[in-house]
Each structure stands twice: as structure tokens, then as C-alpha cells.
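W.,

You were right to be curious about this one. When I first looked at the sequence I had no strong expectations either way, so I just let the prediction run and decided to look at it fresh. Below is the sequence, 187 residues in total, followed by the output.
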Amino acid sequence: MHHTLRFYNANRPLVLRFYMFGARCTKIPLIGGLVRKIANTFAKGEHRAYLLTYEEALELAATAKAIASTECTCRTLYHKCDNPRDNEILLSPSRHALLETMTEEAKEINLERAREILTDSKRRGLVLTIIKCRGDFYSICSCCTCCCVPLRFSKKYNIGDAVQRHKDIVKEFRDYVNNYHDHTHEE
């Protein structure tokens, strides 16, 4: 279930650079519309960010079975502002899956530390999103509007499906965590 995340997490900077290259191709005459259509289709089915309220982010962190923190890849790559970089929260349906997918730079944290990170992000006016990669929820990103790749896709390149609002995101995440545990107990 989480095997794609191992690849994505180990290669986040490369993946985001590739995505931004594709997004810039939407500006090329004649092929830009096709590239945009492909990017929107990919975002719908494979890799998307969902906008969160602060309260939803707190609920998601409380629902996860394991949590870690790491640097925000968007801000690390594009560093267009002075907001902190160490505020991305990795969420996992199990500790085993978290340990299997997180990089060496990430560190396990408890729920209280996750709440502190989210509260600081809210105070700074950062945008909270949860990232979903090929069916697996990955992280709560606390990003700024100037560096956030999904927001830049939507605003600058008209790839609107890269970031969406989902009114039942907490329920969907809860189901994801519960189904993961149901699936792992069957094996």
C-alpha cells in the first residue's frame, strides 16, 4: 500500500523539479493545453493536495498512528521567503509504514509536537494541505503561497486539480487508516 511513498519520499526534490518543469511546459504555445490536461488528469488520480482548515489538520494528526516531522520540500527547493522549513508533518497509518518510508532527515514526533507545528503554521498564515500520492496519504504540508508547488500549479499554470478542497477529508483519512490496519491484520 505505501510502497510508492518510499520512492516519492526518497526523491521528493527530484519529483517536484520534474513537476515544475511540466508545469512550465503549459506555457508553451500549441502543446501547453495538452500538457495542462495531462497534469490535471495526473493530479486527479495520482498526486494531489487537499486544502485543510487548522481544525482538520489537528484531527488528521490525531488520527494518524505514527507521525514524523521533516523539512518542507517546496520551501527547501524554492526558498522565496523566511518561513521555517522544518514544519512538514509526515502521517502514517502505522509506525512500520512510517519507518519504512521516511528519510534519514525526518524524525518521529508525538502528537503534542505536531500540534505545536500546526499552531505555529496557523499563526504565520501558512497554507495547510494534506498530500495524497497514488492512494496513500503522505503528509500535512504547512507551506507559504510563494513556494507551495500545488498552489503555484493552480495559480500560475492553471493546473487547478493539483490542489482542491475536500469537505470529507477527515473521514477519508480515517477510513484510510482503518482500512490499512484491517488489510495488514488479514495478512
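Here's what jumped out at me. The chain is about 55% helix and 20% strand. And, maybe more interesting for your project: The first strand starts at residue 47 and ends at 51.

Coffee later to discuss?

I.
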